[in-house]
Specification:
- By secondary structure, this protein is α+β, with helices and mostly antiparallel strands.
- It is about 25% helix and about 10% strand.
- The chain has a 3-stranded antiparallel β-sheet, covered by helices on one side.
- It starts with a helix and ends with a strand.
Amino acid sequence: MKYHFTGFATSALFHTALVVVVLPLLLWQDLLEKPAVPQPVTLSLTQFQPAPEPPVESPPPPAPEPVPVKPQPPKPVAKPLPKPPEKPKPPKKVVEKPTPKPPPKPETKPEVTPPPAPQVAVVTPEPVVTPPPRPVMPAQAPVAAVAKPTPVPVPVNNGAAEAAYRAKLQRLIAARKQYPRMAEQAEIEGVVTVAFTLSADGTVMGARVSQSSGNEWLDKAALQAVNAVSGALPFPPDIHKARWDFSLKVTFTLE
């Protein structure tokens, strides 16, 4: 049954294609056999006018013949005239100058010697002998008075006054002490021993670090504190010293 349906479908498709191909050919043949329809012819009664003749162009005038130009003869080049030969100049006559005559010599008159003068006796005076001047004795300079040496006051050891001054100086240095910021941030502590000399008016001389704390910031701060009290604390009358050497400790501790 399946094969019969396939054959039927194939046959139907074949016949349909045949009709599609043959039908246009038949229609085209019928059209060719039909006679053509006559079309009406229109007649016009207008008069025929011939077209105007085109204007006859006059031929162009003949071109004038070129006039031959005669070549001009070259101009004669004027040749320079030869220079006449120069006449030899006559030699100059040498005129001899007359030699000048020597001037006449003046006449020499005979010298007349005067008669000798009479001799006069010259008397020379005897030399006057002057005595030599006496030597002037220098005036004696006044004898300067010999200055007697002033007695040097013998220092009196006043232990109580010196101890009080030392303690006061230690408190003054501690008050002028400034903790370095870098050491404070790093939490560095230490003790610096500073050696220096004080004069009678309290001037600090030759301050130096005799024993370091091991930190440069603390050592510099200790020297600055000692130099800051210079001139602030003169010696009291109880201390009879011109100079006084100190060696004090400056302590840096964080609270």
